[in-house]
Amino acid sequence: MRDGVPAISAAGLPAPERWIGRGENARWRVIARTAFPFLVLAAIWEIVARLEVFPRRLFPTLEEVASAFVRLTLSGILPHHAFDTLVRLTAGFAIAAIAGVIIGILMGRFRRAEDIFLPLVSIAAPIPGLAYAPLFLLWFGLGNFPAILLVAFVSAFPVIFNTWTGVKAVKEIWVRSAQAMGADNPKLFRHVILPGALPYILTGLRLGLAQAWRVLVGVEMLAAVPWGLGWMIFGAREFLNTDVMLSGIVVIAMIGLALEKLVFEKLENYTVVRWGMMS
């Protein structure tokens, strides 16, 4: 091969261009594979709406839902509802994440803490979150405070259970090896216990966030809050504004997807994936 002449593949393309083309094709295949089930669901929805299997007011077309979404967004109503819900979710889930991880680690590392907390958590966790709502409203009144506390209380259970399981799953040989090499308790926790339990902790945080969403949307319907997606959906139901209800549901899905991609996936890639614990 002469100097300065790029390598030509059998297809007549320089090798780097061929690799770029393959990468673009693979990326488009991933996008198409991800979008396919949503497109199928949208097509089925549109067919059912056009055939008027249900009354149009109760089962609007995608065009009507999109129109309501744009109208509410441009008027500022939907962003206001979404912002208030997101503030409540962030505050409640932050409390649940911090408390749940601490309690789960204590349960996993200390037998006495496990004996104290495990029976309480095992009894309280299976109870539906909304079953606690009337009690929290009676104890703490109406408004944001009981909603945030209820979100924190209910969403802490998956975090506690998964953190406890993760700490218990750390192999004893890792702990003994670190101790044999002179690791004290802080180093043992930082370099062995926490990395080993982190995949379980991240799973618990994901489950806790899903739990937080469910109870928050429900309690916003009950707690007489002035704004919020749950309040908006409940109010739209009273007037059979199904397109408004679906717009709120779309925003919830969008926020959930954004949190997964921008928070959990980034954290996972920065920790357990980089450490080779997950592929």
Task: Tag the structure with descriptive keywords.
279 residues, mainly alpha, MetI-like fold, 2 domains, 10 helices, 81% helix, globular
Explained architecture:
It is a single chain. With 279 residues, the protein is mostly helical. It has two domains: 1-53; 62-273, MetI-like fold (Orthogonal Bundle). The protein contains ten helices and no strands. Helix 8 (185-222) runs parallel beside helix 9. The relative contact order is 0.11.
Q: Per CATH, which architecture of the largest domain?
A: Orthogonal Bundle
The overall strand count is: 0
Sheet with the most strands?
none
Task: Give the CATH H-level superfamily of the largest domain.
Answer: MetI-like
Tertiary shape: globular
- N-to-C terminal Cα separation, in Å? 39 Å
Which CATH class of the largest domain?
Mainly Alpha
